[in-house]
Amino acid sequence: MNSDSEMRVPEGFFRKHRWSILLGLLVVLMLLDGLDDRFAWSSTAGLWGMSFLFLGVVGATERNTFLRVMMAVPVMGWFLLLIMAEFLGMTVNGGLYALAAIMLFGSMIISFRQLFAPVHSEYERLSSGVFGYLLIAMLWGLIYWRIEAAYPGSFNLPEDIVGQKAGFVYFSMITMTTVGYGEITPAASLTRMLTGMQAIVGTMFVAIFIGRIVGRLK
Q: Which parts of the chain register pLDDT below 70?
C-alpha cells in the first residue's frame, strides 16, 4: 500500500499528551490534600478531581484490552458511591477508600506499562514514569492513613497532623526518596515492614525508570 492509503487519522490533544495532562492533575490533587486543614472545600474538590484522574487513566489505556475493562468497573463504582455521598448524604467512606486503593494500584500498573509501550514522544514516556512514581507514593500514603485510623498508635506523629491524609502522603514520599526526616516514624511491626517494602519498591522503580529512559536515548 502507498503512503497516502496508510495516512493516520490525526489524534486528539488528550491522546498525544495524555500522561502529561494526568501528571499535572495528580500534582494538583496532591497539593489539594495539603490544603485540607485550611479549606473545607478542598476535600470535596479532591474527590471529584480523583474521579477525573481515574477516568483519564481509563481513557489513556490501550483500547479493547482486558486492563481497560478491569479499570472501568471500579471507576463506575467510584462515581456511583461519590454521587451517593455528595447528593444523597450516605456514608460510603469505606467503599471509597477501598476503590481508591484498587484504582491507584491499577493506574500505577498502567503507567508502568507505558515505560515499555510505544508513545508519541519520550517526553510522554517521562511523564508516565513520574506519574507512576507519584501514584506509588499516594497509594502507600492512603494505606498508612487507613492503618493509623484503624489502629491508632501505629505511627509516631506530630500533634498537628494526626488524622490528616496529607501527612501520610508526605511520609510516603520521603520514605520513597529515602530522605527520612524523622518527624513521622512507624511504631508497629506492620508499618515498619510496609515502609521498608516501600523504600525497596521506590528504589527499584527509579532504577528501572532511569535504565529505560537511558536505553531509549542510546
A: 1-11, 14, 37, 64, 117-121, 214-218
User: Considering the domain 13-217 in this protein, what is its CATH number?
Assistant: 1.10.287.70
Place of cell 501514584: 135
How far apart CA 185 and CA 170 sit, in angstroms, is 12
SS3 state of residue 155: strand
Averaged pLDDT of the chain? 81
What is Dmax (Cα atoms) for the chain? 69
Catalogue the long-range contacts made by 113-116 (C-beta closer than 8 Å, 24 or more residues apart).
113/67, 114/19, 115/208, 115/209, 115/212, 116/212
Query: CB-hemisphere CA count at 13 Å for 88?
Result: 9
Q: pLDDT tens, 51-93?
A: 888 888 888 777 767 878 888 888 888 888 888 887 877 877 7
CA pair distance 166, 22, nearest whole angstrom: 20
DSSP 65-105: -HHHHHHHHHHHHHHHHHHHHHHS----HHHHHHHHHHHHH
Q: Where are the domains of the chain?
A: 13-217
Question: Residue 64 has which C-alpha cell?
Answer: 479493547
Residues 6+ apart with CB under 8 A from 107: 53, 54, 57, 71, 132, 135
Amino acid at 30: M
Q: For residues 195 and 174, what is the distance between their CA atoms, to the nearest angstrom?
A: 10
- Which pTM does this prediction carry? 0.80
